[in-house]
């Protein structure tokens, strides 16, 4: 398992790294690094974890994350397919905050860029027409070298600094308190919950998994995830229900029980609390036209 603090993906001889990803799954490990990251999903669906934000992701989505913000794209795939056919595809761009030098962000010309970088510390989801423009520029970036590649990244950052078509992901109070050992332990928890969320999961199970008492685990999880364990499981279930409503055309009752909820009334309550919509309204707004 990869550790939380990985070696920088950017060689000392370069200002940035841009690469295409094509693999059975996106990296399954909860981790963070000191670089800024732009990530475009070209193929694949699953659950996205950024800070204390949990949401389903799909093709075409672009996120921008700042330094030391824990993140994970946990891919869904059809277990009946051969692994070489269960591809996830995307484009990732890494760069350091000082790639423009030490002083530009303190000048008037760098004011909006500095504000963008501050917002990215909570993670940003790019929406609307801006998302389409950024997608084209990120695809271009793969074909460029030298100064042209830097200039293309500046175009992307300029667009992001000007647009209002973005959503902040992690909550205002989120602080990364994780260390290397913590991310390994949290990966165990995430993996376990993703495999078993469709049934009741007890604190005792997770306490045994992490070699803690139930009380200690509950306290530990709240500190590092910025939410209770029951809230975390509920968000995983709601994210799965969203996919069932849209991708499998299920009704609310079917999605409720397939996602691990025991009563329809609790499902409807939790669904509205997480998405600010009823299941039927969510399906109408985001479902096929």
Automatic annotation (TrEMBL):
InterPro entries: AraC-bd, Homeodomain-like_sf, HTH-like, HTH_AraC, RmlC-like_jellyroll. GO terms for molecular function: DNA-binding transcription factor activity; sequence-specific DNA binding. The keyword Heme does not apply. Transmembrane segments: none annotated. Keywords: DNA-binding, Transcription, Transcription regulation. The keyword NAD does not apply. PANTHER family: ARAC-FAMILY TRANSCRIPTIONAL REGULATOR, TRANSCRIPTIONAL REGULATOR MTLR. This is AraC family transcriptional regulator. It comes from Maribacter cobaltidurans. The lineage of its organism: Bacteria, Pseudomonadati, Bacteroidota, Flavobacteriia, Flavobacteriales.
